[in-house]
Amino acid sequence: MLLSGSIQQTRLILLGIFVLLLGAMAGCKSDYPASGKAASSDSKSAPRQVKTAKVAETPIGETVTVNGNLAAYDHITVGIKVPGRLQTISVDFGSVVRKGQVIAQLEQQDYKLRVQQAEAGLAQARARLGLSPDGADDRVSAEETGTVRQAKAVLDDAKLRRDRAAKLVEQGVVSRAELDTSESEYKVALSRYQDGLEEIRNRQGLLAQRRTELALSKQQLADTLVYSPMDGVVQEKKASAGEYLAAGAPVVDVVRIDPLRLRVDVPERESHNIKMGQSVRVTMEGDPDSYLGYIKRLSPTISEQNRVLSVEADVRNSGRLRPGAFVKAEIVTNQTASAVTVPPNAIVTFAGIDKVILIENGKALEKAVTLGRRGSDWVEIKSGVNVGQTVVVDPGNLQSGQAVSAESQ
After folding, report:
1. Burial of 339 (0-12, 13-18, 19+ CB in 10 A)
2. 257 φ, ψ to 5°?
3. What is the 3-state secondary structure (H, E, C) of 198-267?
């Protein structure tokens, strides 16, 4: 009796579990229609308001796309012209400098003393010519100097004595020997007169030398200041205050970064389309903007090693470009060519696939597209859509098949 009671109790427990399972299954079946009703009510909801734009044909020109590098337009190593100890340097790495700006200075005391020494030598040379020591006019007549006037007086006296002796010899008053003596004295006086002229010319030459030495010493004093040769940015500081520098030693490297030089290599098959003055669109990874440049320099030859044409373009720099950057360049070879384009915010990218969302019969329709070039307000579509079709801009989470109501952008 005890065993049969346990069996009955076990059967009752199993029966209860079975009833519970049936209830759970019934609940699941009753939820399915509810879900179906919810989906049905969503499908009949009001159409979503979206902004749209037309697929357009935009003149963007035919281009040759190449990769290249940006380089500084000019790169100058600024050195010191005279030796000396660097007293001050007012710039450092990254400093912006202007043409003519003082960027460094040597100690000047030694050069100031040299200027004073040259001024003293010039004053002495002027005094020897009978000029005032501090005058600026170095012109002088040799005949008016004391040395030449004295020699000229002696020469004139010797000439008179010679002439007088010659007349007396003709008259038989004096002997021929006295005439010879007078002639010799005249020749000696003439020689001294010529020596006097040469001495004055020598002093004039020495005065010119002293004048040049003074100018040179003043120039050396001025050269103790180091000026920036152009507008630019300091790329590297190469000397420090207190350091003794020899003549020609580098102080800083200055680069000019506006405009920049774009250097690219164009394949030989495309080189016949490249001309001077063509425009270039430059883009850089991580920068949504494009920059405009123009071809300024072409290599006269095709490289035999890699069969490319070297091209340089000048690109205006708004401050966001840097020398050494790797960029993509689109050289516009035909300004009149056009392409199918859409606004950039109409492109949806998912899992590496580019799409646009078209509107057909009042519903959204996803369409895979192949992209081409990009501009600031357009993206080229190489395949997938046609001119005149309507695309959704800023679609967000819009799904294909969803009802939409369009308004133009």
Report:
1. buried
2. -115, 10
3. HHHHHHHHHHHHHHHHHHHHHHHHHCCEEECCCCEEEEEECCCCCCEECCCCEEEEEEEEEEEEEEEEEE
What confidence category does residue 320 fall into, taking pLDDT thresholds of 50, 70 and 90?
Answer: confident
Helices (H) and strands (E) in the chain, counts: 5, 22
Pairing of strands 48-54, 390-393: antiparallel
The predicted pLDDT at position 33 comes to: 35
DSSP string, 109-133: HHHHHHHHHHHHHHHHHHHHTT--T
Please answer whether residues 330 and 374 qualify as being in contact, where contact means their C-beta atoms are separated by less than 8 angstroms. no
Q: 3-state DSSP: the chain helix, strand, coil percent, rounded to 5?
A: 35, 35, 25
The structure tokens listed for 276 are: 């001077």
Using the predicted structure, report yes or no on whether residue 311 has a pLDDT greater than 80.
Answer: yes
Residues β-bridged to residue 49: 405
Please state, in angstroms and rounded to a whole number, the distance separating the CA atoms of residues 92 and 239.
10
Question: Given the structure tokens 């003293």, which residue do they identify?
Answer: 120
251 neighbors 106 (Cβ within 8 angstroms): no
Band (pLDDT 50/70/90 cuts) for residue 35 is: very low
- Judge whether 221 and 104 are in contact, CB under 8 Å: no
Sheet holding 244-245, edge to edge: 225-227, 102-106, 84-89, 244-245
Place of tokens 């046609």: 386
**Which pLDDT does position 41 carry in this prediction?**
40
Helix (H) or strand (E) holding 376: none
- Amino acid present at 111: Y
- Model pLDDT for residues 250-299, shown as the tens digit of each residue: 999 999 998 999 999 999 998 888 999 999 989 988 888 889 999 999 99
Residue 322 has a CB neighbour count (10 Å cut-off) of 12
Q: What is the C-alpha separation between 149 and 151, in angstroms, rounded?
A: 5
Q: What percent of the chain has pLDDT over 90?
A: 40
- Letter string b/e over residues 274-298, b meaning 16 or more CB atoms within 10 A of that residue's CB: beeebbbbbbbeeeeebbebebeeb
Can you read off the two tokens belonging to residue 144? 């008016």
- Distance (Å, rounded) from C-alpha 99 to C-alpha 77? 14
Single out the residue of 272, 289, 290, 273 nearest to residue 281, CA to CA. Answer: 290
Q: What is the enclosing helix (H) or strand (E) of 149?
A: helix 146-171
Amino acid 77: pLDDT: 95
Q: Is the pTM of this model over 0.70?
A: no
